[in-house]
Amino acid sequence: MSLTVSQNLFIEDSPPINVTQCGEDGLSAISLQLLFNTATDGIIGVSATFGWRCQLSSIAFSTLSRVIVVNVCAALPKDKAKQQQILRGRRLLQERILLSPHFQKYAFRMDQIATALYLDLSLHIDDAVDMLSVVIKNSRRSLQALMDAMGGETTLYRENVKALFFGLEKNPTLSVALRAWAACRAATVPHMSSRFLRIPRINTREFPRAHLAVLAKISRDAERLEALKPTSVKNDVADQFTAKEGGVNLMCSRFSTRIRTSSNQVLHIEMKGDEAATNVTGRARQVVGRSARVVLNGPVTGDKIVSVTTVGKEDPTYAESHREDVILKTLQNSTMLLSQPFFKSVWLPEERPLWPVPTEEPIDPLVYFPGRALNPSQEDAVQKILSTSNEDRIVMIQGPPGTGKTTVIAAAVISHDYAGSDRTIWIAAQSNVAVKNIAEKLIKDGFDKFKLLVSKDFHLDWCVFSLHGRCPFCKILQARAPVREVGTTPHSI
Q1: What is the reported pTM?
Q2: DSSP letter for each residue of 107-151
Q3: What is the β-pairing status of strands 56-62 and 66-71?
């Protein structure tokens, strides 16, 4: 398939773009050479689409006037002849583009593309530029970050950029082609080229297979979790509200369905008055604890809230953004993640981790838990947690609900305190509520010398302050960083 299209992203005019589509088995050296003949300064823009289970479904390569879109097979066919044709096409891609020293590959999410190429096609890529790495202030997944990486507001049609990168895809082939073209075009913007030169390149061929497989798995798991996020959530709010200056103040009643500020989400509010119920849309502009200030796109026509629904995916949490950043920097060879002993122990068990050598002979604390008797499995688990041997640096405790896992945490903390150790304990959990539950367990078992660190939005209105009455030493702190889900930080005892 071949067609000619025009771009509507950049204000400056550009020549028509020829788009060619083929499968891996239909890729030829001639079609690639037609692409190379139009390359400027060796720059190739790259984009990709992902299908079921976030697997690579197509990849596009672009110059300023030509794009080739290659559809990818989800699995190799059983037919040997067909298999060989597909594998031949993949070798062409790797030798002529992906690993070619003659071309620099530019993509807005090169981390995702680089790991997908290896995980799905067993292909490497060198001299690859993650263009969003030039963005410092804004979230990588935001429209503003994309605008900044493409050259800024003065060079672009904002609404068209938003529609292409964040809107529904009516024609996936055309969309991926234009995104690859946009990457190529942005790489040639004069005031951006020097910024892109400073970005560390991604060269996946330099990584051992086991290391690259781990990075690809972590990245893919994160993408799958992101894909599972709901695009519509019913918010639990009080039916009474106050109206003021083109908006309403709503009161949330449940933390897990609370209203959040987000540039990607719209609120649909159904109101009821003396007459029939009416609907109006709006955006949350300010959220403080349970209270949410919503600016409306229409008039307030009722005096009671019937329902509030958030449409659109929530922004990444701080932990999700940080994970993505760490994987990207590891691919850019800008961190020491792969040599960290804790990382090796979890993800690379076949490699021997190098633990720090203690300055003095460590002594394992004895199990001390006067509140109640521990069963043998619980006592063994506590001993493993308290152990200072390298073999017990990481301990996994598994058990169904009600088997005393939280009791084991409390026993380990109290035993550590009783031994008089000067080491600090951090207890981290996946959610604010889980952290609070652990804190309540510690208090119930007679330990109250800790600080509780929760995210800012949970700290205001949502956190159960009844802890103060039973915990004279407890201090509940709010996280300064924009963290949504963080853990407790027990005091150095």
Answers
A1: 0.88
A2: ETTHHHHHHHHHHHH-----SEEEGGGG--SS-TTSHHHHHHHTT
A3: antiparallel
